[in-house]
Amino acid sequence: MFARAFQSSLRTPKFRLTPLAVRLLSQETKSAIEQAISSAPVVLFMKGTPQAPACGFSRATIQILGQLGVDPHKFAAYNVLEDPELRQGIKEYSEWPTIPQLYVNKDFVGGCDIVMAMSQSGELSELLESADALVPEEEEEK
Amino acid sequence: MDLTADKLTQIIKERLQATEVEVQDMSGGCGQAFAVIIVSDVFRGKNKLMRHRMVNGALKEEISNIHAFTQKVFTQEEWDEQKKMFGV
């Protein structure tokens, strides 16, 4: 009975939600995203997995991170195709309309275009270096 | 109302005061994927992330309705340098 009353109150809201309130991220999704972003120094939200990217932009981004020598132990990838809430939520959280999305030390870096431009200019390897996220160079033999 | 390269070019020129716009339809006809180059002095003094956010903001509706959107943005000065360097 309670459930039904609750439902009907949902159908006829006493007040109109503003568009902003409707679009507001649920606290649950938000904290799940925050947890994901803090799970590694380098975090990528992508379509598919690093081994099997499901989109050319995600593939290109993964390739760049690989070429720059990101340490797999300092990297986490989240497949937005596995989780519709994450897929929509991350766009709102980052205020960024497309996937993939790269975070370094919890800071939003950008999408594929930015990652590509920053890798060409050398900015990205500088950023990753300063985040201590690259595979350590092998020590020279003496 | 499907987006075309021409329509998108017009929209970008208006909303971002772009002096040069190049829109490439990468979708093979379905109007779902575009690669754009935007030259505008509204980008002056802004870093890459801020610039892309400006474009994403100005084209919010359009981008949310298509599958893929890739952008390169320059100020007029940067673009002139590109042209000089690469003869594009």
From TrEMBL, chain A:
It comes from the Eukaryota. Residues 42-109 form the Glutaredoxin domain. One of its GO terms (biological process) is [2Fe-2S] cluster assembly. Transmembrane segments: none annotated. Keywords: 2Fe-2S, Iron, Iron-sulfur, Metal-binding, Redox-active center. GO terms for molecular function: 2 iron, 2 sulfur cluster binding; disulfide oxidoreductase activity; metal ion binding. It holds the Pfam family Glutaredoxin. One of its GO terms (cellular component) is mitochondrial matrix. Gene3D superfamilies: Glutaredoxin (3.40.30.10). CDD domains: GRX_PICOT_like. NCBIfam families: Grx4 family monothiol glutaredoxin. This is Monothiol glutaredoxin-5, mitochondrial. It comes from Pichia angusta.
TrEMBL record, chain B:
Signal peptide: none annotated. GO terms for molecular function: 2 iron, 2 sulfur cluster binding. Pfam families: BolA (PF01722). One of its GO terms (cellular component) is iron-sulfur cluster assembly complex. SUPFAM superfamilies: BolA-like (SSF82657). GO terms for biological process: cellular response to iron ion; intracellular iron ion homeostasis; negative regulation of transcription by RNA polymerase II; positive regulation of transcription by RNA polymerase II; protein maturation. Coiled coil: none annotated. Belongs to the BolA/IbaG family. PANTHER family: BOLA-LIKE PROTEIN 2 (PTHR12735:SF27), BOLA-LIKE PROTEIN-RELATED (PTHR12735). This is BolA-like protein. The lineage of its organism: Eukaryota, Fungi, Dikarya, Ascomycota, Saccharomycotina.
